Amino acid sequence: MIRGFRTFAGGAVFRLFRLWSENRRREALAQLALALAAGRPLPRALALAISSCDWTPIRQAFAHLSEGLAQGLPLPGLLVHPSCRELPAVFRAILGADLPDREKGMILQTRLLSGPVTAGSSGADGLAYLVTEFAVGLLVVLQLLMFVLPQFKEIFRSLDAPLPPLSRAILWIGDLSSPALLVVLLLAPLAGWFLYRGVGHLIGRTHRSQELAEVLRLLPGISHARLPYLLTVIGHPVIFPQTGAALRQVGECLLQREPLDRALAGLHADPLALLLLRLGLQRGKTPAFLAEGADLLETRVTASRQRFMTAVESLLVLGLGTAVGVIAAGVMMPMIAMLELL
User: Fold this and answer.
1) For residue 76, how many other CB atoms are within 10 A of its CB?
2) Which of 122, 257, 267, 272 is surrounded by the fewest CB atoms within 10 Å?
3) Displacement of CA 96 from its chain's centroid (Å)
4) Residue 276 phi/psi, 5° resolution?
């Protein structure tokens, strides 16, 4: 039990440090994004970010970019240098794209406001929390089976009265040489089906809606003539992991003036998200409409994540409570029978 508590405490401390460092990095990256979105050229924006950045790895990466640009080196080559390893891949992809500096700043600002900029990290913290809860609950049950039940084993076997079926089953599980292996073998098929068939689909759909909300926030600052080219540039799996390829197809359809039905269907997103994107791509839509559409999508995404987290957490708590209750009942029933004999 003490070992399990130490493991849980160590994981909690590591999680807090990771969140703290992630927030510091986001603040440093946001300074460059805001400077670019305000219309400053990249060399001047880097100088401003270096002067105000207090996160050393990011400041060193910005300094490397600034020195390289001053020497006339190409930006894509500078971004793949080991000095820029601290910059997230999505940040480097946007910064090295063939776009004006102002549009780069708008895209970076949108991605930073949506959450962590590391690709695929959206929702990972929630799943990590659920996995931690499941591991702690499983550890509690295993501790009961391996260390608590043996204390009652000899007492139960010394009784002349037959044990109830529940008590015999619990003692049989406790006598196994590796109860942890038994639990893993029992739960692995169910967990695999739940994660890969149910949870994966729901999480992927939520991520796609979140990415489309970010695209809607980009549209007000982009002219309708620039929109097709912008979609082909940002339509990359590094920038938008879930919808990048489909967004590129949408941009190509706009360039060739083809119908968008097939390209939009390739997004595999929520029908509301597809409707808002279709309306947002039309000429003449006001920024207020696009902002309200993005807010609506983000509200749906937040509510969907909260419902999912609440449901899974409730199932974990219910399962842990049921397991502990069954073990307690199996222990108490022979004790009650022994008291009745007295």
Assistant:
1) 12
2) 257
3) 25
4) -65, -40
Neighbours of 105 (CB within 10 A): 25
CA-wise closest residue to 152 among 136, 180, 175: 175
**Tokens 């990256």 found at:** 29
Q: What is the DSSP string of 24-73?
A: HHHHHHHHHHHHHHTT--HHHHHHHHHHH---HHHHHHHHHHHHHHHTT-
What's the chain's Rg over C-alpha atoms?
28
Measured over all CA atoms, what is the biggest interatomic distance in the chain, rounded to whole angstroms?
94
- Return the closest-CA partner of residue 231 out of 320, 239, 315, 174: 239
How many CA atoms lie within 13 Å of 96's alpha carbon, on the beta-carbon side? 21
Q: In terms of C-beta density within 10 A (0-12 exposed, 13-18 middle, 19 or more buried), how is residue 256 classed?
A: exposed
Gap between the Cα atoms of 203 and 132, Å rounded: 18
Give yes or no for a contact between 208 and 267, defined as CB atoms under 8 angstroms apart. Answer: yes
CATH fold for the domain made of 2-114: Receptor-associated Protein (1.20.81)
Measure the CA–CA gap between 69 and 80, rounded to whole angstroms: 14
Task: Determine the Cα–Cα distance for residues 149 and 143; give it in Å rounded to an integer.
Answer: 9
| Average pLDDT, consecutive stretches of 10 residues, N- to C-terminus, the chain (342 residues) | 49 63 82 90 92 86 93 91 88 90 90 55 56 70 70 70 74 62 57 54 74 87 86 88 88 88 84 86 78 86 81 78 77 72 64
Residues 6+ apart with CB under 8 A from 340: none
Do 264 and 179 touch, CB atoms closer than 8 A? Answer: no
Question: Could you tell me which of 116, 278, 301 has the C-alpha nearest to residue 204?
Answer: 301
Hey, where are the domains in the chain? 2-114, 122-342
Closest to 217 in 3D by CA, of 290, 300, 108: 290
State how far the alpha carbon of 85 is from the alpha carbons of 33, 36, 62, in Å. 18, 21, 11
- 164 burial level (CB within 10 Å; 0-12, 13-18, 19+): middle
Count of helices and strands (H, E) across the chain: 16, 0
